[in-house]
TrEMBL record:
Superkingdom to which the source organism belongs: Bacteria
Cited Pfam families: TetR_N
DNA-binding region coordinates: 41-60
Xref: Gene3D superfamilies: Tetracycline Repressor, domain 2 (1.10.357.10)
Keyword DNA-binding on entry: yes
InterPro entries the record matches: Homeodomain-like_sf, HTH-type_TetR-like_transc_reg, HTH_TetR
Domain HTH tetR-type: 18-78
Protein name: AcrR family transcriptional regulator
One Gene Ontology molecular-function label: DNA-binding transcription factor activity
């Protein structure tokens, strides 16, 4: 399977600008973690990062872009892990193992930033499917599924595996229904196991 590109890489920048960017994003992530994304202000993030508020505005423009940049910063690390990292999440493991590892890692990634991802996926409602990250996830799973099930519609199955990890459903399961993360991962294992099983491994219907 050819290597996929990590999407959303920041442009090349001076060392001092890159340092300030990391400080601002780290500060914003801490504010979001303690008070929620709605409580974030440019002034507060600037104070937490130890930079002038003008630096934050010049770097990110407005609060919404800053919040999405926090998502992007974490997202690039996740993408690098499944594209270039060690197995079973990264290359080197059997395709079925990589599918399972990817779904578990994506569940962890969703857990870490569920509220931010919900904001990003809901504005507009179809934003999840326009996002470069979703397209990369879909391509990654499609390539793995084609190796395991060359007879199947891998593109459709990739969407089916990603559907349970939409932020709105994930948060409903975690908060409204009280599902622990391990239960969600176990359900993903069951779903993925059924999808990657060869056709002759499907249970036979009992004669009536």
């Amino acid at each position: 399977m050819r290597e996929l590109p990590v999407v959303g890489r920041p442009p090349a920048e001076r060392a001092d600008a890159a340092h300030n960017r990391r400080r601002i994003l780290r500060a914003a992530a801490e504010v979001i973690a303690t008070r929620g994304p709605e409580a974030v202000t440019m002034d507060e993030v600037a104070r937490a990062a130890g930079v002038g508020v003008g630096t934050v505005y010049r770097r990110f423009g407005d609060r919404a872009r800053l919040v999405y940049a926090v998502i992007d910063d974490r997202e690039r690390d996740f993408q690098a892990a499944f594209i270039q990292g060690p197995p079973p999440l990264g290359p080197g493991a059997a395709p079925a193992e990589r599918v399972r590892a990817f779904l578990h890692a994506l569940a962890d990634r969703t857990e870490a930033q569920a509220d931010l991802l919900l904001m990003a996926e809901s504005d507009p409602p179809e934003a999840r499917f326009r996002d470069g990250s979703y397209r990369l996830y879909h391509r990654h799973l499609t390539l793995l599924l084609r190796e395991v099930r060359p007879d199947a519609d891998a593109a459709y199955l990739a969407d089916a595996l990603l559907a349970p990890l939409a932020a709105n459903l994930f948060l409903h399961q975690r908060r409204a229904r009280g599902m622990p993360l391990d239960r969600i991962k176990a359900g993903l294992d069951t779903l993925a196991g059924a999808l990657v099983a060869p056709p002759d491994a499907a249970p036979q219907e009992r004669p009536g």
